[in-house]
Amino acid sequence: MTNSVDIRQHGAIRVVTLNRPDVRNAVDAATARELHAAFLAFDADEEARVAVFHGAHGHFCAGWDLQAGARLLEEADADQPSPLAGLEFSPDDCAPPGPLGPMGPSRLLLSKPVIAAVSGAAVAGGMELALWCDMRVMEGDAYFGVFCRRFGVPLIDGGTVRLPRLIGMGHAMDLILTGRKVEAPEALQMGLCNRVVPTGQALEAALALAQQLAGFPQKTMLADRMSAYTQWDLPLPQALHQEWQRGRQCIDEGLQGAVRFAAGDGRHGRF
Fold first, then answer.
1. Can you give the pLDDT at residue 1?
2. What distance in Å separates the CA atoms of residue 95 and residue 99, rounded to the nearest whole number?
């Protein structure tokens, strides 16, 4: 990896950090490939249980690097490959973990959770990367927004899919059509983020949350997570059957938990 993407391990937690301070961590083609590779490596590493996705220098991600996009247009001629080269895909290509997206990992369905630690700007494609994560911990002065609305840049990293699924069609249309800024209190109210923490504490809070998830019985948690992700397109009977099929493989883990509970562990909702 280059300095555009930093990777560090904290026990069972993998921290993936965007590090392009000159463009507020905007993502160009090379950085997208690095992010894609970084999260595939996390998913394949049996020692890494949860990932935290973070942006260095006070911003999560300002989206696609428009300056790099402008250079592509200026340099384009008949001999140059299309800017979309390598990004075209069909539904048949989307079997987990998934292909490369314009912003990198946005088309991946990983087998393990990722938590976004959001500071500063998480806008346009940066907002789409945050939506890709399982959970979002947001600093009090951070903000979301489909800022690419101003320039005619489309949402092609899952924004039009994940945003309505996360916050409902009414809220999603407001954000998608207007491109307006959404600050932390409103984001929390509409379910766009899961936690709001003081400025400068998103990474610390996301790491604490990741440690909590890493400490749970993993087989059951991951089965429940995947059932939730893969139920969207199924009729209710098939979705319930899928839930059962995944859950029945974890009964042994649940019975071990029952033994711990009977011995006094975790009573009265203690974690």
1. 45
2. 8
